[in-house]
Design goal:
Rossmann fold; single chain; binds adenosine-5'-triphosphate; 2 domains; alpha/beta; binds magnesium ion; binds iron/sulfur cluster
Length: 425
């Protein structure tokens, strides 16, 4: 069997799997259960993702938020099975449209990446090919994922061109038929007319030309005005913000079922950021795309997300609708994050700071990993890991304060030295 035949079979299988899966549960798109991804380093085992569970439904935006190093990117990379050695997924399941991604062969997995799931990576320089022009990289995405649409556009262009070619023929015929009756000056004028008309006819376009045209259009849409010039540059000839927008353009061009966007707008100024968020919203509406939006920025989460998962030190600690979470944050860590957002209303108030530092993931704190920083800490918090409690069908929390079994247990008494120490970062 040739490589092409093998690829075709894999692609056919993927399509069939997707079709039958869609029939089974039309709303649930991604189900991550008890995911554990560890890095086996010389210093020890980094438990970057340590028992994470969440669902993403069709056409929804799930925000994944948390401080630096809490495992957001590793969670995203695990979904795409792109975690590199010494990292490894050691437990859990990742079901995408009821297909267990962890059981697929590398080749099958590759056919899902880019087709059904795409990712806008946090680090655009490492994700773009340094020796291929930016325009060609974006065009390639269109060629791979939107061939049908490109062919339709190509047909329109070819028809338009045929019309012009036909008109030119008519013009030439007219000249030939009337040549004898024309004066020398009229003949010259006619010839110029034919020459000018010829110039109007573009060279016959091919699929790659149409892909480049689409690339130019999407590059403009992500806020780059001189898109034509940018198409002809290599990634290192672009600014960081431009590279990031090229990545976004590529992510948006695939029309995937799930778009994972890892800090997609961090390097961009607020106007461009707003434009990009609008583009994502449009993509979601137009193609029913679900989005996993990873960011530190709670403003973006509030703007875009339907639901939010708050991550701390390799675990999800609170999981709620965006509305619930911002109106009534219950987990002490989420309260800290929200209390730290500056706003006009808080102008005269002191912003809260979550004291202490993000823990080392090789030796994470015992019990609740947030206990060394938590102002609400109970006596048992450093001894028992909180369960993930379902408060209602749309609200989950992992904190002893909400667990009927522990919530009445005595509060931990912080002494002054401990508090002072914890502020030293
Ligand atoms: N290749 C690696 N080898 C060892 N540890 C790693 C590796 N990649 C990630 N980690 C560790 O895994 C943990 C989670 O990292 P991750 O990149 O997911 O954090 P993050 O939440 O995305 O942070 P940020 O907001 O800064 O992007 C960190 O402690 C990080 O040091
Ligand atoms: S379980 Fe305890 S330490 Fe953890 S967040 Fe809740 S109160 Fe704080
Ligand atoms: Mg990250």
């Amino acid at each position: 069997m040739t490589l092409t035949e093998k690829k075709e079979i894999i692609e056919e299988n993927r399509k069939n799997q997707m079709k039958s899966a869609i029939k089974e549960d039309s709303n649930l798109l991604l189900q991550v259960k008890n995911l554990k991804t560890y890095f086996y380093t010389e210093e020890g085992i980094v438990k970057a993702v340590d028992g994470v569970s969440f669902n993403i439904y069709k056409n929804e935006v799930l925000g994944l938020v948390g401080e630096t190093g809490c495992g957001k990117s590793v969670t995203a990379l695990s979904i795409l099975r792109l975690v590199r050695s010494p990292g490894r997924i050691i437990e859990g399941s990742i079901e995408f449209n009821n297909i267990n991604m962890l059981e697929l062969s590398e080749e099958e997995m590759r056919s899902h990446r880019g087709n059904d799931i795409t990712m806008i990576f946090q680090d655009p320089l490492n994700s773009l090919n340094p020796v291929i022009l930016a325009g060609d990289q974006v065009a390639e995405v269109f060629l791979l994922h939107q061939e049908e649409e490109l062919n339709k556009i190509l047909d329109v262009h070819l028809l338009e061109r045929d019309k012009l070619v036909q008109e030119l023929k008519e013009l030439k015929k007219e000249f030939k038929e009337n040549k004898e009756q024309l004066s020398e000056t009229e003949k010259e004028e006619f010839k110029v007319k034919i020459k000018d008309f010829k110039k109007k006819i573009p060279k016959a376009p091919n699929l790659k030309d149409v892909a480049l045209e689409k690339a130019e259009q999407i590059i403009k849409e992500v806020g780059i005005a001189d898109a034509k010039q940018i198409l002809k540059r290599y990634p290192h000839e672009l600014s960081g913000g431009m590279r990031q927008r090229i990545m976004i353009a590529m992510g948006l061009s695939c029309t995937p079922l799930l778009l994972i966007a890892d800090e997609p707008t961090t390097a961009l100024d607020v106007t461009i950021q707003a434009q990009i968020l609008d583009l994502m919203k449009n993509l979601q509406k137009k193609f029913d795309t679900s989005i996993l939006m990873i960011t530190h920025d709670l403003g973006i989460i509030a703007e875009l997300s339907d639901r939010v998962a708050v991550m701390y030190s390799g675990n999800i600690v609170e999981y709620a609708t965006a509305e619930d979470l911002f109106k009534n944050p219950r987990h002490p860590y989420t309260q800290g994050l929200i209390g730290a957002i500056p706003s006009v209303e808080k102008k005269d108030k002191k912003l809260t700071v979550i004291r202490g530092m993000v823990p080392n993931l090789i030796y994470p704190p015992s019990g609740c990993r947030f206990h060394p920083r938590c102002t609400e800490r109970l006596e048992i918090c450093d001894k028992i890991k909180p369960r993930f409690l379902e408060i209602d069908d749309r609200y989950f929390i992992a904190c002893h304060l909400f667990d009927p079994e522990y919530k009445e247990s005595p509060k931990y008494q912080w002494d002054e030295t401990e508090i002072k120490e914890s502020y030293k970062v």
